[in-house]
Amino acid sequence: MTNRRVLIVGASIAGPALAWWLRHHGFTVTVVERASALRPGGYKIDIRGAAIDVVEQMGLKEQLEGLETDMQVMSFVNKAGKRLASVPADLFMGRGEADLEVMRGDLSRILYDATRADVEYIFGDTVVGVDQADGTVTFKNGEPRTFDVVVGADGLHSVVRELTFGAEQEFVNDLGHLVSIGTVPNHLGLDRQELIYSAPGRTLNLYSTGKGHDAKALFLFTAPGLTYDRHDVQAQQRILDEAFRGAGWETDLLLDEIARADDFYFDTVSQVGLKRYGEGRVSLVGDAAYCPSFASGQGTSLALVGAYVLAGELAKADHPEAFAAYERTMRPFVERNLQLGRDNLGRMVSKSAFQSWIGAALMRVLPKLPGKDSMIEKMTKPIHDAARAIDLPQYRTAADDHL
């Protein structure tokens, strides 16, 4: 069983994490990635709860701690740029002492570096077909190859999911919002600071992890039912421009700058809901299987925990039984975090100017209120509960079997 050949499609977070655990269990692993190289950059991401236990078992926690963003302050600003309220960043994001916040690109690089010596990586290619009968996989560019198990770790718009489970619209739930993010010059000189500007139906978030670094601009807005071409970047930039141009503060300048960003990203705020995580010899992990949306702050943690559980179950049993056990273990955890994403999104975009004002006012007075600690604990409890809503199984590894 330990010599089974596994193909993983996707080399962002879930894919290399799964590769690490599968090699730890003695599997032969190949990872194929559509991009021509590892994707650098990206936005800041949280690792919480059970996912902290996973990276600790991988021996990567100390390395990640050295790459923490160390964000200090989050401030609400008005149209004129005046800071209406400022609070510690960890308080606003609901982070506990053990939680980590790093840049997506840093985590991706660490996982790749930890696996590239004994995992085959193929960049610049993708899967176009999987034969369930004998495991033959056809690629867009490379020659066909045979694998015992194929895992889609290829994100919200998973090719593997569409090939195996069906059309994307059957499983992807658009939450009625669009999000865009990109790297922009740090023209305000932010140093581990995050600024939030809110207008009805629109939120603009600007942050930098250090003075002298670039900044990230994140635009979030309501757009129920809006359709667009996922491959037409100019059309996406027009939609973004129409939604925010003239909204106040630094929006017009940041719109001009994000249009020039090499890493411009634009997509729906969506979740993935599957009735099953495995079909035949194919399974899914991370956003491909259970994207909770960025609003949950739990996508990375779900990917890390899912990789750990899927690899552990594959080490215990043949893939039909392993996929079923993986789903049984992950399902309650996934559902809890999907709900968290839906709940959080409603608080991230104000419906009116009054709601924006109330939100800033609450943040301004919260640190001064009597009983603030219990109030903060109540506000952050849903995040911490969702992050810990799984009892991680313990799996024997190939190394254990040689003891």
Automatic annotation (TrEMBL):
Domain of life according to the entry: Bacteria
Ranges in a coiled coil: none
A Pfam family it matches: FAD_binding_3
Domain FAD-binding: 5-338
InterPro entries: FAD-bd (IPR002938), FAD/NAD-bd_sf (IPR036188), FAD_aromatic-hydroxylase (IPR051704)
PANTHER family: MONOOXYGENASE (PTHR46865:SF2), OXIDOREDUCTASE-RELATED (PTHR46865)
Entry protein name: FAD-dependent oxidoreductase
Organism expressing this protein natively: Kribbella speibonae
